[in-house]
Structure formats: structure tokens, C-alpha cells
Design goal:
Layout (H helix, E strand, L loop, with lengths): L1 H34 L7 H15 L1 H6 L7 H4 L4 H35 L13 H26 L5 H11 L8
Length: 177
Amino acid sequence: MRKAMIRLFSVAGVMAALCVFAIFVIMIATTIMREVGIKTGGSDDVAAWLTASSAFLGLAATFRHGDFVRMSLITEKLPENWRRRFELLCLFMATLFTAYIAYAVCRFVYESYEFNDYANGLVAIPLWIPQAPFAFGTILLFLAMIDQMWHVLRGNEADYVVAVRERHARGDFSEDV
């Protein structure tokens, strides 16, 4: 089950990267289209939706790889037995917080669907469609938090701690938070 979730987090990370690539394509295409006199209505809306999608779809993968803001400046200074306790406390609080965020976002998206809200811009589509990746990304982050908390509770070291240590062992300090 854990391997399937980790794959899902990675797939969502790839989807986030594809959203960023799509933004690149849209920006280049609209630049060319404007130069030749073709109207580019709605491209800004789509680029904005893709930006939000890329940010939220990448949350779980980013968390797992140790690229999130963490309490490592504090945890590094603690003795080993306290470090693990503090790590679990932080994971528990983060899990509660992301549970609330996931609930609120899913409710928001459902209300957009229920009330049949449409986008106000030039692209008139139901709002729940561009909002769905926002909900999916927050659910994945919640699942990643639960996974890491369970993983650490079972006596293992958190994946993000291992990922950062491996990066440092390779001499890569560029992504420290």
C-alpha cells in the first residue's frame, strides 16, 4: 500500500511538472500569436489555473523529498530521543492541519459544483474543473502526512530526513530549507 501511495505522489509530481510545461507552451504560443495579430483570449485564465494546479499537485512529492519548510534547525539540536518525539509532534500537528485544509478545500470545490459556479473570465467553464487539482493535491498532502507519521511511529526515520541526508552526502546543499 505504501509503495502505491509513493508512486501516486510521484505521479502527481510529474503532473505538476507537466502543468509548468503547459504554462511555458501557453506563454510562448500567446507571445507568437500576439506578434502575428491573433487574439489570445482566455490564455491568462488557463495559465493561472495551471499555476495553482502545479503548486498543489506537487505538494506531496515535495514534502516526501524534504523540500518543505521544516523544523530541522530545532530538531538537529535535540538529543535523539527528544528529536523523534518532537518530529512526531510536528507530524501530528501537520496532519491535523492538512486534514482541515483538505476538508475545507474539498468542501469549497463541492460547493462550486453544487451551485454550478462558472469562471468569470473569458473561458466560461464550471469552476470545479480547474479547482479539482487543488483538492486532489491537498488530499495527497494529507495522505503523505499520515504516511510519514505512521512511518515514524513504527520506528523508522522520516523519508524527508533521509532524502536531505542523501542530498548532503552527494555534496548538494542547494535545496536546503
